[in-house]
Specification:
28% helix; 6 strands; alpha+beta; six-stranded antiparallel sheet
């Protein structure tokens, strides 16, 4: 009996350690490396035209060109396309929302699409006096009523600087658990109510006697 309790205690401790580790991460494991990557250099593997490294493979943590993605091992991997905005690397807001919680990050318009910057943009400049600014780098925000950070890296820095570990992470997307199944009694009631009503069969008619 004591041995069983010891094994169960070990399992509980391992589960607790994993939960604490996940809480301390506060972000996908690949995100920090992604923010440090260099893009738009020429791909040395494919010396062709339009071979700039403007994609990022999440699975391999590598910059890639269009030829790497179409013909190489990245073909079926998760890929992010990188754009240029004011000489800085940006990524589509819609694409990034699949992997992180991008709320409160200031989006920008780039070629008719909304993008968010990997790192602070140079044209924003620092806020003066009481101007609303990014909570991390103090750069001006164009819509301070809606957003608190000017880039992904600024939001990551803000999340990691939180001292209260009880606050759940909000860089990683939190998957909602599936709703509980309805009770068995309600299932029986609904199934019975959906059954077609059987019509009662009429009895065999009997003629009245003639005498």
């Amino acid at each position: 009996m004591a041995k069983e309790n010891t094994e169960s205690d070990k399992v509980n401790l391992n589960t607790l350690d994993e939960q604490v580790a996940q809480r301390k991460i506060h972000k996908p494991r690949w995100l920090e490396a992604f923010l440090r990557k260099t893009f738009f250099d020429s791909c040395t593997t494919h010396p062709f035209r339009r071979n700039e490294l403007n994609k990022y493979c999440i699975n391999c943590n590598l910059s890639a060109c269009q030829y790497c993605v179409s013909s190489g091992p990245h073909r079926h991997h998760k890929i992010l396309k990188i754009y240029r905005h004011v000489y800085k690397d940006v990524v589509s807001l819609a694409a990034m929302e699949k992997y992180i919680d991008s709320s409160q990050i200031q989006p920008y318009k780039c070629n008719k699409r909304l993008v968010i910057s990997l790192n602070p943009l140079p044209h924003c400049g620092s806020a003066i006096n009481n101007e609303a600014s990014c909570n991390t780098c103090n750069r001006k925000l164009t819509e301070p009523d809606l957003y608190r950070y000017c880039s992904i890296s600024c939001k990551v820095a803000a999340v990691l600087s939180k001292s209260d570990d009880s606050i759940p992470p909000f860089i990683s997307i939190q998957t909602r658990p599936p709703p509980p199944p309805p009770p068995q009694e309600k299932l029986k009631e609904t199934s019975e109510s959906q059954k077609p009503l059987k019509r009662k069969r009429k009895g065999i008619p009997h003629r009245a006697p003639f005498f």
